[in-house]
């Protein structure tokens, strides 16, 4: 595959991921988990099969992986117990990721448990970062006589592109957890953070599309880290390497952006909980209610920051 075909494939994968994101917004946003989870699982599996890596047939022993994903996704709609539904949802997600690896031609079932766990780590990594690599690969071809520009400009732009969705996700979580933060954020940006409004819906579409793009990248390109390490029964690698790796500049921009949004939130908490500011007049909440609010949102934010 030459560079032009590689770029065209990346753009095609991004379009398919965007379509899945729109479908996810229609099926999942504001709806209870049920048959919608099954529909999304079927859509992702079908898309993964259509964009699978050419010339690498899946291992016949891995045929049960997508079946298991579909069955567990169906259980989410059947079982009423929330704990069992959550376990079924996690299992469906895990088997969907394994199916993407199998679609790319990597043997999964034949491997040892330690190799499967390592594959799982690489699938999670690609799910979170694969779309960023697709965006880099889908860039227009450089001109034959490129104009002179600072060397650091490209790294800064990539860092901002990666940091923007993270900052938005943190802002939504913090705004849901703290009404005072939400009011201040609305005043600064003139934007009402509400998942029922257009900005929230676009963010939901982008989040689903981002994860879907990473999974489709696995089906289309395999797992270079696994194949390079020759884990278990891995077949000889025919995967092209990524066109560019992310560097220190991009990482620093992401880190600084996340630190700024977290610092603003923590500073607001300190001001109202320990600085003598009145939460009752600001948000209609007592100090105890204000301190206990937003537990699950902050747990999600901590998990995202750790990731």
What does this molecule look like?
The protein is mainly α and 307 residues long. The protein is 71% helix and 0% strand. It has 13 helices and no strands. Helix 5 packs across helix 8. The longest helix is centred in the N-terminal third of the chain and has 26 residues. About 4% of the residues have low confidence.
Helix content: over 70%
User: How does the helix and strand content classify structurally?
Assistant: mainly alpha
Strand segment tally: 0
Using only CA atoms, what is the Rg?
22 Å
Euclidean distance between termini CA atoms: 33 Å
Shape: globular
Give the SSE order as H and E letters: HHHHHHHHHHHHH
How can the largest sheet be summarized? none
Strand content: under 5%
- The average pLDDT score comes to 78
Low-pLDDT sequence parts: 231-243
Distinct helical segment count: 13
Short overview:
This protein is an all-alpha fold and 307 residues long.
Task: Name the descriptors.
single chain; 307 residues; mainly alpha; globular
Task: Summarize the helices and strands and which ones pair or pack.
Layout: H1 3-28, H2 35-50, H3 64-78, H4 82-103, H5 113-137, H6 153-177, H7 179-189, H8 198-221, H9 224-229, H10 248-273, H11 279-283, H12 287-292, H13 295-306
Helix pairs in contact: 1-2, 1-5, 1-8, 2-3, 2-4, 2-8, 3-4, 4-5, 4-8, 5-8, 6-7, 6-10, 6-13
């Amino acid at each position: 595959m030459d560079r032009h075909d590689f770029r065209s494939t990346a753009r095609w994968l991004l379009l398919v991921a965007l379509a899945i994101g729109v479908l996810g917004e229609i099926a999942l946003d504001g709806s209870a988990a049920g048959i919608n989870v099954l529909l999304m699982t079927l859509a992702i599996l079908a898309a993964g099969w259509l964009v699978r890596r050419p010339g690498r047939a899946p291992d016949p022993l891995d045929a049960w992986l997508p079946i298991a994903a579909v069955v567990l996704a169906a259980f989410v709609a059947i079982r009423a117990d929330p704990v069992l539904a959550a376990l079924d949802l996690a299992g469906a997600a895990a088997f969907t990721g394994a199916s993407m690896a199998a679609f790319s031609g990597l043997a999964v079932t034949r491997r040892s448990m330690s190799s499967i766990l390592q594959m799982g780590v690489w699938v999670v990594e690609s799910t979170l970062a694969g779309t960023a690599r697709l965006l880099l690969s889908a860039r227009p071809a450089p001109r034959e006589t490129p104009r002179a520009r600072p060397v650091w400009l490209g790294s800064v732009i990539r860092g901002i592109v990666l940091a923007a969705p993270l900052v938005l996700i943190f802002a939504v979580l913090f705004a849901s957890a703290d009404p005072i933060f939400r009011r201040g954020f609305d005043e600064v940006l003139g934007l009402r953070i509400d998942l029922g409004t257009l900005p929230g819906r676009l963010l939901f579409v982008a989040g689903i599309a981002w994860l879907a793009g990473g999974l489709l990248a696995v089906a289309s390109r395999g797992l270079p880290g696994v194949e390079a390490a020759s884990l278990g029964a891995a077949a000889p690698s025919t995967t092209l390497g990524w066109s560019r790796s992310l560097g220190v500049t991009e990482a620093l921009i992401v880190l600084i952006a996340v630190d700024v949004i977290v610092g603003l939130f923590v500073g607001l908490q300190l001001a109202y909980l320990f600085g003598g500011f009145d939460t009752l007049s600001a948000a209609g909440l007592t100090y105890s209610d204000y301190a206990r609010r937003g537990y699950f949102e902050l747990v999600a934010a901590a998990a995202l920051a750790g990731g």
